[in-house]
Amino acid sequence: MTTRRTSPWLALVVLMAISTVGFIDRIVVNVLVEPIKGEFALSDAQVSLMGAAFTVLNIGVGLVIARYAERARRLTLISLGTLLWSAATAACGAAATWVQLLVARMGVGLGEAIGLPSNQSVISDYFPPNRRGLAISVLMLAPPVGAFIGFVGGGWIAQEFDWRFTFLIAAVPGVVLGVIAWLFVAEPKRGQHDAGAGDEVPPMSDVLRRLFVLRSGRNLVIGSALAAMLGFGLNYFFTSLMIRRFEVGLAEAGLYSGLIASLPAAISVIGSGWLGDKLGAKNPAAYALVPGICLIVGGPIYAFAITRESLGLLLGLVSVATFLNFGYLGITYAALQNLMHPRMRATAFAVLNVVYGIASALGPFLIGLLSDRMALSHGPADGLAVAMAISGLVYVWAGAHYLLAARHVGPDMVRMHGAREAAALRE
Predict the structure, then answer these.
(1) Is 0.90 surpassed by the pTM of this model?
(2) Rounded to an integer, what distance in angstroms lies between the CA atom of residue 338 and that of residue 194?
(3) HSE-CB for 10 with a 13 A CA cutoff
(4) Within 10 Å of residue 282's Cβ, how many Cβ atoms?
């Protein structure tokens, strides 16, 4: 008797939990920047290399695994990858040198390259196109929920015990969830909600064409990559800013960072996904207009907020900016997945993971370099604040690409799927 179930919501909850654990294991280093920097005597630019170490294997291996996932059982890859990155996270806590820590972070990236590319493909096969905006937005609650757990829990554990213990604790949930996914979540039939879906796997060139040649796809990718670069970079140093500028403790700084990076972003991710599905029924451009407008408004608010000298005012305004600047997460993936053939979706995620992986490594590194430069004239605390404010304005650039994408989403859907199927996506 099989224990596996075909419930869409069971699959969504389990895979969202796995994605959340993956994000915790990725982002928990952010709250540990100061103790790791102090123990190994590192600069801001050096300590930011933990993001680059994660990316080294993650982006390359992810592409290879994704192409295999278009033909293989995806839940097996998800389970194995989750177990692997959890073991590597534990290894981070056992690292005795800076080099060993970087190698362990590479292992986390490798495990996530195996375990995560198939998630959106599985969910897209469980939910029909007109419900994918909300479903994938629920899946993309992983960043805000993971940020809350990583910042708040990680900061408290590091302060009360040790930064190494934080990694060890973070590794445990992944082991449990990897087993649950293997035992209880069934592999869905590919393309069961997509007209004309077949067993043939389209070539890589077709995936790249839909992502980078189609004007809607290209602008969605560029805009979301810029937003992701800023999100990773600004979140990477937010806890450090609290400690340096306002002299709060590690646990308190982690609490502030976790609350701001989680609740406003979670509401925004779900709200934009729901709004995109609702408005997209009449106008597909909504999938790009909603995040575009939010980013153009949110960027200047963040730049103004991060330089405030009152901690309360800073936290309040950054919360507003976070609500506006993170709504792009789920709705962008949904729009891009709807442009894909059912046997392109794992590959599309992996290609996007390359783009976002590079962005996630560049964000902390560029802000770290700018912070080191600004520190020469403004000091370590104010220099970091100025660097973050300047970087926050790039959200406006990201939003402009979403507005460009909005002009082409509808026509590109017709080009890729035909008029009848494109209309069905909105029913």
Answers:
(1) no
(2) 10
(3) 14
(4) 9
**Annotation: CATH topology of 8-424:** Growth Hormone; Chain: A; (1.20.1250)
Amino acid present at 377: S
Q: Which residues are CB-neighbours of 9 under 8 A, at least 6 positions away?
A: none
Q: State the 10-residue block means of pLDDT for the chain, 427 residues long.
A: 81 95 86 84 78 78 87 92 95 90 92 89 86 85 84 83 90 95 91 66 87 92 94 86 87 81 85 84 86 95 93 94 90 86 83 83 88 91 92 94 92 68 49
Letter string b/e over residues 123-147, b meaning 16 or more CB atoms within 10 A of that residue's CB: bbbbbbbbebbbbbbbbbbbbbbbb
Query: Is the distance from CB of 135 to CB of 331 less than 8 angstroms?
Result: no
Query: Which DSSP string do the residues of 121-177 spell out, in sequence order?
Result: HHHHHHS-GGGHHHHHHHHTTHHHHHHHIIIIIHHHHHHHT-HHHHHHHHHHHHHHH
Task: Please tell me the distance from the alpha carbon of residue 314 to that of residue 322, in angstroms, as a whole number.
Answer: 12
Rounded Cα distance between 418 and 170, Å, is 46
- The Cα 245–Cα 405 span in angstroms is 39
Sign of the Cα torsion 93, 99, 103, 109 reads positive
Domain boundary assignment for the chain: 8-424
SS3 content of the chain, % helix, strand, coil (to 5): 85, 0, 15
Calpha distance 240→242 (Å, rounded)? 5
Residues 271 and 382: their CA atoms lie apart, in Å, by 34
Q: How far apart are CA 385 and CA 306, in angstroms?
A: 6
- DSSP sequence for 246-264: H---HHHHHHHHHHHHHHH
Query: What's the chain's length in residues?
Result: 427
Name the residue with tokens 């207009």: 289
CA distances from 358 to 101, 192, 195, 355 (A): 20, 33, 34, 5
Residue 226 tokens read as: 């810029």
Q: How far apart are CA 52 and CA 103, in angstroms?
A: 11
- The two tokens of residue 379 are 């000091």
